[in-house]
Amino acid sequence: MSDVFYKLEDTPPLKLLIILGIQHVLAMFVGLITPPIIIAATLGISTEDKAFLISMALIASGITTFMQVKRWGPLGSGLLGVQGTSFTFVPAAISTGLAGGIPLICGMTIAAAPVELLLSRFVKRAGKIFPPVVMGTVVMLIGLSLIRVGITDMVGGIGSEDFGSIHNILLGLFVLIIIIIINQFTNGILRVGAVGIGLLAGYIVSALLGSIDFSPISEAGWITIPVPLKYGIKFDFAYILPWIFAYLVSSIETMGDLTASAQNSGEKVDTPLHTERLSGGLVADALGSMLAGFLNSMPNTTFSQNNGVILVTKAGARRIGYAAGTILIILGLVPKFSAIISVMPRSVLGGATIALFGFVAISGLKIIMSQGLTDRNLFILSISLALGLGIIYEPSVLDQLPETLKKIFSSGMVTGGMTSVILNLVIPEDRS
Q1: 207 to each of 167, 179, 210, 263, 344, how far by Cα in Å?
Q2: Do 78 and 69 meet the contact criterion of CB atoms below 8 Å apart?
Q3: How far, CA to CA in Å, does 1 sit from each of 4, 159, 269, 322, 387?
Q4: 200-212 burial, b for 16+ CB within 10 Å, e for fewer?
Q5: Of 227, 172, 251, 159, which Cα lies nearest the Cα of 205?
């Protein structure tokens, strides 16, 4: 980019740094807070614990952003890459959490993170080992499997007394319509923040209608003290495959995000330096995810939305990442802020996530299309989706399997992902 106002090593004025940092936080905020909210709702934990998980996710995001933006030898890319929990890990976290709660989620977050350390040594080969048809299939399965979560929340969430009520449906649709309007009829920062604006609008309407219980906010304190492994830690390696697949997808996404960030910051990407940056980025992802696990949070990875902010603002200075990381940590240290988020009605969240999960599924298709929709790729995609979604739609087909195999293949992402890997290896390229 020749029209970058602030390139990678530039230092914008402090006031502008703060403004730009806030914009980056707003762009990725919904994607960051949604995973812990979904996990909390799935596990049925208290509003107080939900607020704590949100706080920990914010703090982990801020710390890992510093790790990514600052290069410490082999650690970090030195690029403007804001970190946070990705939807990629939500399906694995849901199945793991239902089996062993937050302790098992934290344990598997830590146990599977070395996958990215390993990949950091083979950056140039990663794309060949996991081509777009494989990664795109897995991403599609992630999005499609999460749509059920989104639509369920949109009508009130499983277990709610008013599940499927007209009130919940209209509120969820209101949020979705706001997102559609902002996304399609505005540009720039407004468009980047469409989902956040939709959530805010839904929150305000819910408050005006008396649908929010604000007592947890008044009861929350002003300072959160991080408590590593507050809920304990467990390991069950029968669940390791879904986490490995999620980390593989996350690794490919990180390399793509950091490459886009470098280009948008006025840096060349066909150099040995960029290869080193990608390697350092994966190391930051891995170690940052381990740290997140100890902080009772899920794995952290780069956020694609922030590249949109760089394009809009034309500011790619990595020091903006320091500002964003600082803001995230401060927000995480204030429990009243997390409490405000924790009391959000699930129908409001569902109205936003139904759109987000649809975007995730389509982004998987776009990844596959980057390699071309050949007959071979379409065949791999169709068989992998059929098996992966089949497990999601009818999990009882695994009931007769040994318990370990049942745990492994109960994830549609694993079943479909393994199918795509095998088919990609055995089907000749000239079949297209």
Answers
A1: 13, 19, 5, 43, 9
A2: yes
A3: 6, 51, 12, 22, 43
A4: ebbbebbeeeebb
A5: 172
DSSP state of 220: S
User: Which residue matches tokens 């409490």?
Assistant: 339
- The kind and range of the H/E element at 160 are none
* Whole-Å CA distances, 14 to 17, 55, 70, 100, 316: 5, 26, 18, 45, 15
- Convert the pLDDT of each residue in 153-180 to its tens digit: 899 877 778 888 999 999 999 999 998 9
CB 235 within 8 A of CB 107: yes
Q: What stretch of H or E contains 181?
A: helix 166-185
Q: Looking at 44-165, list the stretches that DSSP marks H as alpha helix, in order from N- to C-terminal side.
A: 47-69, 90-112, 114-119, 123-129, 132-154
Rounded to whole angstroms, how far apart are CA atoms 193 and 175? Answer: 13
Take residue 346 and report the two structure tokens written for it: 């699930």
CA 327 to CA 310: how far, in whole Å?
18
Q: How many CB atoms lie within 10 A of CB 237?
A: 14
Q: What are the backbone angles phi and psi of residue 112, rounded to the nearest 5°? A: -90, -10
Angle separating helix axes 14-43 and 194-208, nearest 10 degrees:
60
Burial class, 230, CB count within 10 angstroms (exposed 0-12 / middle 13-18 / buried 19+): middle
Q: DSSP readout, 24-40?
A: HHHHHHHHHHHHHHHHH
Tokens at residue 404, please? Answer: 């370990």
Give the pLDDT of residue 1. 44
The amino acid that residue 164 corresponds to is G
Element (H, E) at 343: none
Q: What is the pTM of this model?
A: 0.83
Assigned token pair, 136: 């795109």
The per-residue pLDDT for range 371-428, each reduced to its tens digit, is: 788 899 999 999 999 999 999 889 899 989 888 888 888 888 889 988 998 999 899 8
Between the alpha carbon of residue 307 and those of residues 26, 116, 154, 230, 403, the distances in Å are: 13, 22, 29, 34, 43
